[in-house]
Design goal:
Blueprint (H helix, E strand, L loop, with lengths): L21 H20 L19 E2 L5 E4 L15 H4 L3 E3 L2 E4 L4 E2 L4 E7 L3 E9 L21 E7 L6 E8 L4 E7 L10 E3 L7 E7 L2 E9 L12 E12 L3 E5 L15 E6 L8 E15 L7 E2 L4 E13 L2 E7 L28 H4 L20 E11 L2 E10 L2 E6 L4 E6 L3 E12 L3 E12 L2 E15 L2 E13 L2 H7 L5 E14 L3 E10 L15 E13 L8 E12 L5 E14 L3 E14 L2 E17 L2 E14 L4 E16 L3 E14 L2 E18 L2 E14 L12 E14 L5 E14 L5 E16 L5
Parallel strand pairs: 2-16
Antiparallel strand pairs: 1-2, 3-6, 4-5, 4-15, 6-7, 7-13, 8-9, 8-14, 9-10, 10-11, 12-13, 14-15, 14-16, 17-18, 17-19, 17-43, 19-20, 20-21, 21-22, 22-25, 23-24, 25-26, 26-27, 27-28, 28-29, 29-30, 30-31, 31-32, 32-33, 33-34, 34-35, 35-36, 36-37, 37-38, 38-39, 39-40, 40-41, 41-42, 42-43
Length: 792
């Protein structure tokens, strides 16, 4: 349901960033706290916490909260080669995966999987033997790490604090390619449901091997790559294993019984007990980096010559220190925060608000989920060119805290409004400070506070507030947050951007209720953001808005039927207005989708909306639709689009819009990956074309090994406008941009890397008088990056 409401701003879960008046939010918060008080008191998981010392338990013991607990025996060192002949595995306890969790509902697993866990004083060892009746059908490819979606794979989830809030995920494909992520149980910006953040990277070893009966995976995870409680005695960790078996259906099996009517996944995890005498050691890591590059630019476009730029040589240092087993300090000096991966291309030719691009820089990624809240007050990509940065994160008992301080040489500002946003970048030194505190309440609820501030000469933005995530019932969760901001822009920037002069303030609040079971799900969301509210360290492109959003979803499972896997029907509505009561937008939508054999998905989404822009309200209907199919592991076809009414934001009038987006993913053998995507957008007024835009991207990768690849990306963007249909008739008739990038990558691990790349930008245009400039190179760049992680 993401992105259905183009008349308003949505977050990553498609939730409207607007809410009803403050009295409604206050009333809703009171209801949440009233009905949540009793169940919160009873949420402690069987009377145990992650810091409680226990005694060793017999194999398969059932705990007081109904979870299986496995006894982990101390083993010898393991050679990670995908061959399970080490002494540590000879007498290790077997953990089976007996449940099919998707599409089945804890039915018998269609394939057998036997896993084992062991450890010594330095490493945690994991292994699985995954049987398959047809090993020739195993889908496994040589890819870069974290790119094993759609592969046969096994994923280990480890919750060292056993607190049902956060787990580390380690995935290994049938060919040994690894992935890792942080699994967060609740909170954040996704409506309270569980989510995995694959941007987190750890240093560990993995191997995989296809056999005559299936495949084998093996992994070794250093304790210095984990965070866990520091206390004497025996520890018990939350743990479960899931296996992906992608065939005609995308089947998943698990070691745990997963009740879909319980929103807390980690509350239902298995337990590993028997950990003792373990520590991360000195837990120091130093990663010096060398970055060198040169950018040549055509200063007088298009007739001037390309001028060679200066060759830059920058030396930086990243350092990580495990102050304790559960407190980590990250520091960086002169970091290389350049983007090696090109941002996902987006069309923004008829949009009102700033586009969102995800964070990809390693320094900010570790522990990033901890700083996420329903209102996006922290968005680290606002820190563009830092000279230094420090980050402290950790958890002790029920309390977790984090602190980020960074000095930036560029002040990136976003100026939000009720129906549009703008921005500016100022060359001035600015200090960003983010502080976060969170306390566990009961078994899986939390309350917390946040501060996010930016300070510079003549400028500041300070944001602070409180938030909470509450598990009211097994299937019902609630999120609440309140923030207050104080802002002062410099006189020059305030004058040129139309922002208030002097000091001004604003408030923002949100409340969200989410209900999820296997068959039913529903959500109600309300927000209110004042006109003076700003989050310059975050991403809030719309303010002066209040409104509500609600949806209901029903899933019909196959239950033995062969022609479909599931059928889904859902509907919802949204409404938003500014703080003065003027309508911004409202609408109603429905969605119907089919999931069937060969991983086929078809969906259709009719919606009706009323939206204000310019000086009047506009009513129109839209039809969104899409389809995808994965007939085998080597081919995926997809298509999405929309047709119907829209608003021409450039000319403040109603229009007709067509948007079509086909995509294709082809694998050739186990090493070549080709991906193609295309977007076509057409805007017209009474049958006369106003605008036509296309965006095409081709991505080709050859993987030498899981550590090394070469990649080529080509992005072609073409925009054609009809000046006669624009209020400003002196606009360019067409603009074309061609971006190419070549990259060679070699990674020993996520921090020990070699990148060598080249990129090129070419532009063309035709002005309103038909004067034409052909595709001409505007600039070119060559770059080299070396990084080497040292762990003494």
């Amino acid at each position: 349901m993401t992105g259905m409401w183009s008349g308003c701003v949505t977050n990553s879960g498609g939730v409207l960033q607007g809410a009803p008046p403050r009295t409604t939010i206050t009333w809703a918060l009171a209801v949440v706290l009233w009905f949540g008080a009793a169940p919160l008191a009873a949420q402690v998981r069987g009377g145990t916490t992650g810091s409680t010392t226990t005694t060793a338990s017999p194999p398969y013991r059932i705990t007081s909260d109904g979870r299986f607990e496995y006894d982990v025996s101390v083993g010898d060192a393991v050679k990670v080669d995908g061959i399970l002949d080490d002494a540590a595995w000879l007498h290790a306890q077997v953990i089976e995966l007996p449940y099919e969790s998707n599409p089945g509902d804890n039915t018998a697993a269609p394939v057998s999987t036997a896993c084992m866990v062991s450890f010594d004083d330095r490493n945690l060892y994991l292994a699985c033997e995954a049987d398959d009746s047809d090993p020739s059908g195993i889908r496994a490819y040589i890819t870069d790490r974290d790119d094993i979606g759609g592969h046969d794979r096994v994923v280990f989830a480890i919750d060292p604090f056993n607190d049902a809030r956060r787990a580390f995920e380690f995935g290994v494909s049938a060919l040994g390619v690894q992935s890792d992520a942080v699994f967060s149980q609740g909170g954040g910006q996704n409506g309270g449901g569980a989510q995995s953040d694959a941007s987190w990277d750890a240093i560990w070893a993995s191997a995989g091997r296809i056999t005559e009966t299936g495949y084998v995976v093996e992994a070794s995870i250093p304790f210095k790559s984990l965070r866990f409680p520091s206390h004497d005695g025996i520890q018990s960790w939350g743990f479960y294993v899931r296996r992906a078996w992608p065939r005609s259906e995308s089947v998943e099996t698990r070691s745990m019984f997963w009740d879909r009517s319980d929103s807390c996944v980690l509350c239902q995890a298995n337990l590993l007990t028997g950990f003792h005498d373990i520590a991360p050691g000195r837990n120091l890591q130093f990663t010096p980096t060398l970055t060198s590059g040169r950018t040549d630019s055509r200063e007088d476009f298009p007739s001037g010559k390309i001028v060679n730029g200066d060759l830059s040589r920058d030396i930086g240092l990243d350092a990580v220190w495990g102050v304790t087993t559960d407190l980590t300090l990250n520091a960086t000096v002169n970091p290389d925060f350049s983007q090696v991966e090109a941002d996902v291309a987006q069309l923004g030719v008829n949009s009102r608000f700033a586009l969102f691009f995800p964070e990809k820089r390693p320094f900010f990624l570790e522990g990033a989920d901890f700083f996420q809240t329903p209102l996006s007050a922290v968005f680290t990509r606002t820190i563009a060119d830092p000279t230094f940065g420090t980050k402290l994160t950790g958890k002790r008992g029920q309390n977790a805290a984090g602190l980020i301080v960074a000095q930036d040489e560029v002040n990136n500002l976003l100026f939000p409004g009720d129906i549009s946003s703008s921005g500016a970048s100022i060359d001035q030194s600015v200090i960003t400070t983010v502080g976060r505190f969170r306390r566990d309440v009961g078994g899986s609820s939390t309350v917390g506070g946040l501060y996010a501030g930016r300070e510079a000469n003549g400028y500041f933005n300070r944001v602070g507030g409180v938030d909470g995530f509450f598990r009211l019932r097994p299937a019902l969760t609630a999120q609440v947050q309140y923030l207050h901001s104080e802002t002062k822009y410099g006189a020059e920037i305030a004058g040129t951007s139309g922002q208030p002069r002097g000091r001004f303030s604003g408030d923002a609040a949100t409340v969200r209720l989410t209900y999820r079971t296997r068959k039913w799900s529903a959500q109600w969301d309300a927000r209110s953001l004042g006109a003076g509210f700003r989050t310059d360290a975050g991403f809030t492109p719309q303010v002066d808005v209040r409104g509500t959003n609600a949806w209901l979803n029903r899933v019909f499972w196959a239950n033995g039927q062969s022609w479909f896997t599931s059928l889904v029907a859902s509907s919802g509505f949204w409404h938003s207005q500014n703080q003065g009561g003027r309508l911004i937008g409202e609408g109603f939508w429905a969605n119907f989708s089919y999931n069937g054999p060969k991983q086929t998905r078809l969906w259709i989404n009719p919606n009706f909306r009323r939206q204000f822009f310019g000086t009047e309200e506009h009513e129109f209907r839209q039809m969104w639709f899409g389809a995808s199919i994965t007939p085998n592991g080597n081919l995926t076809l997809g298509f999405s689009g929309q047709v119907g009414g829209a608003i021409d934001f450039n000319n403040a009038r109603k229009a007709d819009e067509v948007r079509l987006s086909p995509n294709l993913n082809v694998r050739i053998g186990r090493r070549v990956d080709l991906r193609f995507s295309h977007t076509f957008q057409r805007l017209s007024n009474e049958g006369v074309r106003t605008l036509r835009a296309t965006l095409t991207q081709v991505r080709a990768v050859y993987n030498f090994s899981p550590r090394s690849f070469v990649r080529v990306i080509v992005q072609y963007r073409d925009t054609n406008r009809n000046p006669e249909q624009f209020e400003n008739s002196r606009i360019d008739r067409s603009r074309t941009a061609l971006f190419t990038q070549f990259l060679f990558s070699y990674k020993v691990n996520p921090q020990t890397v070699l990148f060598l790349g080249y990129s090129d930008n070419r532009n063309a245009f035709t002005d309103f008088q038909f004067r034409e400039i052909g595709l001409t190179q505007a600039n070119r760049s060559l770059f080299l990056k070396l990084g080497y992680a040292v762990r003494p």
